[in-house]
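Morning, I've got a small favour to ask if you have a moment. It would help a lot if you went through both lines with me. I owe you a coffee for this, so here goes:
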Amino acid sequence: MTATLEAPPTAAPRVNPPARNPVGSLLTILAWVVGVLFVLPVLWMLLTSLHSEENAATNPPSLFAPLTLEGYANFFGAETGTSPWPSLLNSLTASVLSTALVLVLAIPAAYALSIRPVRKWTDVLFFFLSTKMLPVVAGLLPVYLIAQSIGMLDNIWLLIILYTSMNLPIAVWMMRSFLAEVPVEVLEAASIDGCSLTRTLRTVVVPMVLPGIAATSLICFIFSWNELLFARVLTATVAQTAPVFLTGFVTSQGLFLATVCAASVVVSLPVLIAGFAAQDKLVQGLSLGAIK
């Protein structure tokens, strides 16, 4: 019998870790610095909203002053009795309904400009973009006169129509970039199976571009929620929105800093909640639209 000798195991070659890139480290530090600079005013506003008016108005600011909810109580009408809920509901109604109308109009338009392109579609897109070049204040007086003549002043439906028309061009541009990523073969297969255009949009196109729809919806919602100029001029009490209500805290008696900061935090919450809820789809949608 012959014994077989096994070779002793050889040690695996040692792999040195990759050297750190100094440029990447500097960019990381720069990104953190920029992020902190963006977040710092928000944190400062939140901290100021938890101080009393006396401590909020000190110079230099008092960082370690006692915390209180006095500013939030004043915002919700503890002293004046004026409730912000009608204004918040008006903003929510105008923002949600205008965003829904924008999507209903923008998706078919973007479909026609991307998947089934019309003649001179680039001219059509430029026309949409040119409507955003007009300063908003230039159209304020004509819109006011038209609304006055038809009895639509201080009406929430007027704001819904205005916000829809203002956000529609940017929504068409965004949705076209998303729909351009849809494979034509999928649409042809749906057509062979007998799907109508409406059913193709509802069951094939919309699920595929859902991240893009989420990104477009969030941007339109933010634009509508933050709009102030038209709401300030065209509304009074019935259709007053949250940004208009917020400006009411700047009075002739002075600026109540803690109350204004508390009001700003409350008014910003719907946008922050919507952003966090659609965070994954927002990033995916924006990156999808940036590929092409």
User: Anything to note?
Assistant: The mean pLDDT is 82. Residues 127 and 145 are 25 Å apart (CA to CA). The longest strand covers residues 250-251.
